[in-house]
C-alpha cells in the first residue's frame, strides 16, 4: 500500500486518475465505477443500462470497474469493455482494472473456483484483477436456481473461512485472479483470516462515507498492507442499503457551498483524502464526470473537523443478522465497530 499516487493513467478524456500499488497484481485506480443495479440477484443477463453506462464511463475517464456475481451485471460489463477495445477507446482489456466478488451461496469449499470461472465466462475475460469474498458469511446453496430473495436469513451459515480462503489463494495461483481480498470484513474477522492466510488479502471493500468513517478499520488495514476501498461514498440513496444521512446532511451541504462543489464531490474527495480507493456509482454522464473532478482541490482542516464530528451509522446494517444464523446481533457481525444503523425492508432479503 506504500506507493499511493505514484501511478496514474491519463485517459483520452484528459483525466489523470491516480492509482495505488496493492500487495498483488497491478496498481488499482483510486476512483472506480460501480455496476450494482435494481436487477441485483436476478439470473445473469444484461442488467439494465450497464453496457451503455460503462461505455460512457470509459469515455469520461474511468478505468476501474467494480462488479459482483450477485449484481447480474458481469456480462454487460464485459460486453462494454470488449466494445471499447473494438472501437479503440481503450487499447486492450489490460488497460482496465476489473473487480468482482464471490457471492455467499458460493462461499463454501469446492464452490469458489467454479464460481470464479463462471464470473470470468460472464465477463468474457481470461482473468479478473481483484476477486473479493463479498461478505464474511455463507448461505446454504439453493436447491434450485431461482429469482427469489438474494439473502434468505434462515439459510445463513458460518463460513469455513480457512477452506474458502485456500480456494481464493488457488484462484490467484492459477492466474484467474491477479489479486484476492475481502469485502465487509471488520477487524476481528480480518485478524482471524490473517492468522492462516498464505496470501494475505490485498484489499477490503467496505461502506465508507462521512457518516461511516471506518477509522479503526482503516488503521488496522494500513498497518497490515491491506488497501481499504470505500463503497457507497454518497450513502447509496435509493438502494436497499441506503444511508440517507449523507446527501441530506446540512453540514455537508454547507461545506459543498463553501468550496463551490457538490455534496457528492465533497464526499468522494473526503474518502480519497483518507487514502482509500472509492467506488462511485452514477449512470448519469454529467455526474460521472463530476465524480472524477476531485483531484485538483482539497477540503480545509475545518471541513475535516466538521466531518469527524458527524454521528456514525451504517446503511448496510443487519442483512446478515438472524437468531438462527452465525451472527445473532449487529455487534457480532460488525465486531462492535459502528453498530448504529437502520433496518431496511427489501424483497432482496427474506427471513423465511
Describe the protein's architecture and organization:
The structure is a single chain. With 352 residues, the chain is an alpha/beta fold. Helix content is 31%, strand content 15%. It has eleven helices and 15 strands. It has helices spanning 50-60, 74-87, 112-123, 161-173, 187-194, 215-223, 250-259, 263-273, 285-292, 301-308, 330-333, and strands at residues 7-10, 16-20, 28-29, 31-34, 64-66, 97-102, 130-133, 138-139, 151-152, 156-157, 180-183, 203-207, 227-231, 277-280, 349-350. The strands form four sheets. Strands 4-5-6-7-11-12-13-14 form an eight-stranded parallel barrel, surrounded by five helices. Strands 1-2-3 form a three-stranded antiparallel β-sheet, with no helix packed on it. Strands 8-10 form a two-stranded antiparallel sheet. Residues 1-6 have low confidence and may be disordered.
Question: What's this, in brief?
Answer:
The chain is an alpha/beta fold and 352 residues long.
Compile the SSE list and pairings:
Elements lengths: L6 E4 L5 E5 L7 E2 L1 E4 L15 H11 L3 E3 L7 H14 L9 E6 L9 H12 L6 E4 L4 E2 L11 E2 L3 E2 L3 H13 L6 E4 L3 H8 L8 E5 L7 H9 L3 E5 L18 H10 L3 H11 L3 E4 L4 H8 L8 H8 L21 H4 L15 E2 L2
Parallel strand pairs: 4-5, 4-14, 5-6, 6-7, 7-11, 9-15, 11-12, 12-13, 13-14
Antiparallel strand pairs: 1-2, 2-3, 8-10
Helix pairs in contact: 1-2, 1-9, 2-3, 7-8
GO molecular function: 3''-deamino-3''-oxonicotianamine reductase activity
Keywords: Oxidoreductase
InterPro entries: AKR, AKR4A/B, Aldo/ket_reductase_CS, NAD(P)_OxRdtase_dom_sf, NADP_OxRdtase_dom
Amino acid at each position: 500500500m506504500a506507493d499511493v499516487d505514484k501511478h496514474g493513467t491519463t485517459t483520452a478524456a484528459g483525466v489523470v486518475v491516480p492509482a495505488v500499488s496493492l500487495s498483488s497484481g497491478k496498481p488499482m485506480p483510486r476512483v472506480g465505477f460501480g455496476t450494482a443495479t435494481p436487477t441485483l440477484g436476478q439470473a445473469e443477463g444484461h442488467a439494465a443500462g450497464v453496457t451503455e453506462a460503462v461505455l460512457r464511463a470509459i469515455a469520461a475517464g474511468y478505468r476501474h470497474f467494480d462488479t459482483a456475481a450477485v449484481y447480474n451485471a458481469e456480462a454487460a460489463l464485459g460486453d462494454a469493455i470488449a466494445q471499447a477495445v473494438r472501437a479503440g477507446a481503450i487499447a486492450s482489456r489490460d488497460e482496465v482494472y476489473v473487480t468482482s466478488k464471490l457471492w455467499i451461496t458460493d462461499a463454501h469449499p469446492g464452490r469458489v473456483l467454479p464460481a470464479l470461472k463462471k464470473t470470468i465466462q460472464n465477463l468474457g475475460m481470461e482473468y479478473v484483477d481483484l476477486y473479493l469474498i463479498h461478505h464474511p458469511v455463507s448461505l446454504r446453496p439453493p436447491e434450485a436456481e431461482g429469482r427469489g430473495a438474494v439473502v434468505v436469513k434462515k439459510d445463513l451459515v458460518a463460513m469455513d473461512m480457512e477452506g474458502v480462503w485456500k480456494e481464493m489463494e488457488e484462484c490467484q495461483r492459477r492466474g484467474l485472479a491477479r489479486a484476492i481480498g475481502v469485502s465487509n470484513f471488520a477487524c476481528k474477522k480480518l485478524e482471524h483470516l490473517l492468522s492462516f492466510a498464505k496470501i494475505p488479502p490485498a484489499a477490503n471493500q467496505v461502506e465508507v462515507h462521512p457518516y461511516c468513517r471506518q477509522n479503526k478499520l482503516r488503521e488496522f488495514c494500513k498497518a497490515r498492507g491491506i488497501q481499504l476501498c470505500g463503497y457507497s461514498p454518497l450513502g447509496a440513496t435509493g438502494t436497499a442499503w441506503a444511508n440517507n444521512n449523507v446527501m441530506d446532511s446540512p453540514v455537508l451541504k454547507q461545506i459543498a457551498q463553501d468550496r463551490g462543489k457538490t455534496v457528492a464531490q465533497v464526499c468522494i474527495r473526503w474518502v480519497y483524502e483518507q487514502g482509500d480507493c472509492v467506488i462511485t456509482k452514477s449512470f448519469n454522464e454529467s455526474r460521472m464526470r463530476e465524480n472524477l473532478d476531485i483531484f485538483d482541490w482539497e477540503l480545509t482542516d475545518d471541513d475535516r473537523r466538521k466531518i469527524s464530528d458527524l454521528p456514525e451509522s451504517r446503511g448496510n446494517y443487519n442483512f446478515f443478522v438472524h437468531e438462527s444464523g452465525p451472527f445473532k446481533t449487529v455487534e457480532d457481525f460488525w465486531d462492535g465497530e459502528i453498530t448504529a444503523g437502520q433496518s431496511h425492508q427489501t424483497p432482496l432479503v427474506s427471513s423465511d
